[in-house]
Every structure is written in C-alpha cells, then in structure tokens.
From TrEMBL:
One of its GO terms (biological process) is base-excision repair. This is Adenine DNA glycosylase. Residues 44-195 form the HhH-GPD domain. It catalyses: Hydrolyzes free adenine bases from 7,8-dihydro-8-oxoguanine:adenine mismatched double-stranded DNA, leaving an apurinic site. Binds 1 [4Fe-4S] cluster. It comes from Evansella caseinilytica.
Amino acid sequence: MEKLQRWDIQGFQEELLQWYCENKRDLPWRREKDPYKIWVSEIMLQQTKVDTVIPYYERFMNAFPTIEALANADEETVLKTWEGLGYYSRARNLHQAVKEVKENYGGAVPDNKEDIHNLRGVGPYTAGAILSIAFNIPAPAVDGNVMRVLSRLFLVYDDIMKGATRKIFEGIVEEIISEDAPSDFNQAIMELGALICTPRSPACLLCPVQRHCLAREEGVQEQLPVKKKKTAPQLKRMKAVVLVNHVGQVLIEQRQETGLLAKMWQFPNVEAGTEDHSDLTVELRNGGLLVNIEADIAQHVRHVFTHLIWEIDVYRGTITMVENEALFQQSRLKLVEPENVDWYPFPVSHQKIIDKLLKGAALT
DNA sequence: GAACCGTGGTC
DNA sequence: TGACCAAGGTT
C-alpha cells in the first residue's frame, strides 16, 4: 500500500494507544481477559450497541458463568436469557459452539485462527477479536467501526457493504497493528470509531490521530465510508390470535427450526388472507383444534425487522374442542397456564401482544 | 455476491 | 417520522 510509505505508523500507534489508555470506557467484559467472556461479549455486540448489550451480558454471565455452565444448559433456557436482544441464531450458534469447545477442546477456547473461525457463529471479525483481545495475538478484527475509521484515515472509497472490501482493511490492519499491544490496538480503533470517529459529525477536533487522517486533510470525512443503501423492508400483514380453552389455558406455538425467529414462541398467526378468519381457523384445524374467533384486541400492531415489517391484527377467541388429539400432539402448539406464558422465549413482536393482554399497556 | 437475520436509539 | 445506524454470520 503506497499510502503507507510516508505514513507515520509508530507515531500513530503511540498516539492512539495513549488516547485509549486514558479514555477507554469501563465495560463489564474489560475487567478480565477470560476468553469465554470476551467471546460472549463479541457475539452480543454484533450489530448491537454497547449500552444495549450491558444488561444482557450481565444477565447471561450470571446464568452461565462458565463454558461448562452454558454447555450444560438447555436451549430453551439459553433463548429465554437472550430474549429481547434479537438475532436469536447468535444464541443458538453460541450454545452449539460452546458445546463443541467442551467436547473437542477440553473446555478451553482454542487460540488459533482456524479452530476459532470453525466455531459456529464465529466469522472473520469475531475470530480476530477473540484472538487479539483475549490472547493478545496480532490479528485483524475488522468491524464497521474499523472500516469507517480506516476508510477516513487512508481515503478508501470501496463500498463497505461489499464482502470483499473487508479484506482490504484487514490488509491495512496487518500493516499498522501494534505487535506489542494488539489487544489494545484493535480495541482502540473500535473505541475511536464509537466515541470520536462517528458516522455523522465526527469529532475531528478531539481526535488523537487527526494529523494522520487523509480524509480530514481533504475535508471529506463526512463522505466516508462509502456505503450502498439497503433495499427498503417489505410490509407483511399478519393475523395473530390469543385462544383460551374452557379451563383458561392459553394456546402458544413454537416457530420452525430455521429462519425468522427460529424456535421462538408466539401466538398462532398467519399471513392475513381472508376476511372471515378462515385463514386462521383452517391453520388451527391442521393442528387438531376447532376454534372460534370472537373479537379483535388490537389492530395494526407494527414490528419492524431488518428486511421485513409485520403489521399484525390481534384477535381473541376460544378453543371449541380438540378435534384430533394426535394432530395436536404432533403440532408445535401447546396449551399453558396464563401465568406460565413468561417461561417461554417470545420475540419482542409478541411481547407487545403479551403486554397488551396482561398489563394493559398501549400498543404501538 | 446478495439476501436473510432483531432490536432500540438517534437525528 | 422515517431513515440510518450498531463490536457480523450464515445460507
């Protein structure tokens, strides 16, 4: 990289590390360098802000303090602990990967790139993050922060939404990373991205490495990084129903094994089809139940996902009879006491419905 | 590659 | 309020 020829690497490292030493945030996972704790924190921090993660991290580490504890937990409990944090495959992948570490590595997180990367849910960024932060090995850990900071420092105009672009930045990191303090170096770049070199209105006047920044020199820091816009999420109209039987039990349903909100629980729902609710009743009859839809609880409950918007009309009704016990047993439906609904992991979209029913909260 | 996967905060 | 953003990985 030509731009690195006259670029003061040593001065950059010293100024960056000095700033990090003086300004780094006191975060729960920075208190000790337990590879398991670093690992859990890095998975939670994927696409998620520090302030959001902290309470989940505390709760999760309290429930599963060690690899052994998490490996021995059942998946339902793991999902329940993750409830509300989103991207639930992260939790299931982490659970599976921890079991692999227990089985194949005697319960010790491996300390080489290949083995770490082969763990479920650990991609190139997280592998580099664990290697550098937990084991102090000089490996690049390129996330959105790093790409933003480096695109400005070195005037990189490649679209960071493209997968291939990450490799460009990994190459730069390999050139400029501190061999003496790779853990602090990687964290310092990310911390700089989070606190100073922000997406909008970066605080260049406060930046400890502003004299090294080519974007600032040309006044184009606000134009970087280049990032292609995502396509707008598509609206999907849904119907959900809260059904009660003659002894007051509530019907809930576990979602499919893969895809959106996999293995999470919900109230039975379908994509809105017919006006007369046969869309719902036919679906439930496939689960062996005869039901009667009686009234609407709420309309247009919106929930926005990354690539999808649900607009849910919520109804209530009763289970007339269990028409086919065998079908019901084979289905993913389950009758539970209302006070026990809380035992099951529900996504936020359905927590909104629970809040409406149980606590009378406003639906938005 | 590009689409799929959640949620909450900010401007 | 809508669009954007956040310590990405899997398919």
